[in-house]
Design brief:
With 165 residues, the chain is of the alpha+beta class. The chain is built from 3 helices and 9 strands, in the order H-H-E-E-E-E-E-E-E-E-E-H. The termini are far apart.
Length: 165
């Protein structure tokens, strides 16, 4: 027999015992499993400082080519090109790529030797969602140059990364 206060409820509002247990189990699971955390701008700045110290990069000389909209963050094509003659006086020493909302902001670092022909890098990267991708190049005179591109990601890729590592 129903309690008198429940007698006025519509049948569609009531939960079966099975539905209540599933709801409770799902709530407990969400409370136990850690959700992925994206890096904050402070984390990205800390990663840049770790590699390049306190020097501020100057916008220019670096070109980042990425799609403005990526349907999936699982594989986003990226090309990084640096304007340099690659001579002894003016050459690229290293270049790094950062994504400010990925769980780990540093995506890649490439070193360029004196005999490197063209200072460029092409790869595919994973992005956890809509975010800025930052490219920084260090020249032989220790100057830093940068470029930043905003990528709109429809479906993020790094959401499960925190659970695996």
């Amino acid at each position: 027999m129903l309690h008198p206060s429940l007698a006025t409820l519509d049948e569609s509002v009531r939960l079966s015992r099975r539905e209540a247990m599933l709801t409770l189990s799902g709530s407990i699971l969400l409370a136990i499993v850690p959700l992925p955390v994206s890096a904050a701008d402070e984390d990205t700045a800390a990663a840049i400082r770790e590699l390049y110290g306190e020097r501020e990069p100057t916008p220019g000389r670096v070109t980042l080519t990425l799609p403005s909209i990526a349907e999936s963050g699982n594989s986003v094509p990226l090309t990084l090109m640096i304007d340099s003659a690659m001579s002894e006086q003016d050459r690229v020493v290293r270049a790094s790529i950062f994504a400010n909302r990925n769980p780990r902001p540093l995506i890649a670092t490439a070193s360029f030797g004196p005999r490197s022909g063209k200072p460029s890098l092409s790869t595919n990267i994973r992005l956890s969602g809509t975010q800025d991708v930052i490219g920084i190049a260090q020249m032989s005179d220790l100057s830093l140059w940068s470029a930043q591109v905003r990528v709109l990601v429809t479906v993020g890729a790094c959401d499960a990364l925190q659970l695996r590592f």
